[in-house]
Amino acid sequence: MPPAESQSLRTPAPAATSSGPRPGWRVPLDLLATIGAFAYWAVFGLLFTLVSLPLILILPCRVAKKLGRGLLHRAFRVFVKYLRVTGIVHVDLSSLDALKDEHEPVIIAPNHTSLWDAVFVISKLPQPICIMKEAILKNPFLGGGARLAGYIPNGASGRMIKSASEALEGGGQLLLFPEGTRTKHDARWINPLRGGCALIAKHSGAPIRPVFIRSNTRFLEKGWPLWKRPELPIRLSFELGDPVRIEEGESTHEFTKRLEEIFEQNLSRAHKLRRQVAGPEI
Fold it and tell me: Helix (H, G, I), strand (E, B), or coil: what is residue 13?
């Protein structure tokens, strides 16, 4: 097996372990901080949509996309900082710093544990291109900014692959969740991977950088009710894997299975935030 497949990870500093239940005085502060987090997205999202729509019509396409991606990157950085300062989330993103030095086209492919995974990754990337669900582009809180940034809908497969490959030609960083949706509640490590990631990699020739996300909670996973509060603080770890490329003569189906095995191998190894077996209910 070539070195690129060994997936020897740049292990980030370990996250702090839980010291026990939150003290009682933290409960109202945590509640206010949580409400503030939702309010941030409600206010910012609507304002961004209102501002984005005329900018899409006025600005040249290239300028609009660069502006949109930069604004989303900064907004996500502020949000992640807010989560850290309030103590709601303890997250280690240091492994993603290596992506700042990437000047060649690259596909960034995390497992999809939660609704906000993309927020943390984009907070570390100044100009990422994101493939997202087509329905999000119509969302009043998220759609305006995503359209301004030129994010790619995952609707028509052929159009998606063509748009993604063109975006990578200029040395772009493409964020794509190879599961296609958030990891299901009853999945052990990940959902079976879909073939879109392999097709884009084959069409563009770009390597894939897996990102292995772990958490102490299943907050905002597929099926998690928005009204249900998680145990705080939420602890997250993001680990960047080595580049993986399609080998000569390897089919996209074979590559997808190989990539799936890489995720399962790494997500199943001993780690303080390793995914736990789910109960019958969330």
Answer: coil
Domain assignments of the chain as residue spans, ordered by start: 26-267
User: Could you list the pLDDT tens digit for every one of the 282 residues in the chain?
Assistant: 444 443 434 444 444 444 456 777 788 999 999 899 989 988 888 888 898 989 999 999 999 999 999 999 999 999 999 999 999 999 999 999 999 877 889 999 999 999 999 999 999 998 889 998 888 888 887 788 899 999 998 876 788 898 998 889 877 899 999 999 999 999 999 999 999 999 999 999 999 999 999 999 999 998 888 788 888 999 999 999 999 999 999 999 999 999 999 999 999 999 999 998 776 554
What is the topology classification, in CATH, of domain 26-267?
A: Glycerol-3-phosphate (1)-acyltransferase (3.40.1130)
Q: What are 14's two structure tokens?
A: 């370990």
- CA torsion sign, 147 to 133 to 252 to 254? positive
Q: How far apart are CA 6 and CA 250, in angstroms?
A: 18
CB-based contact 241:98 (threshold 8 Å):
no
For the entire predicted model, the pTM comes to 0.87
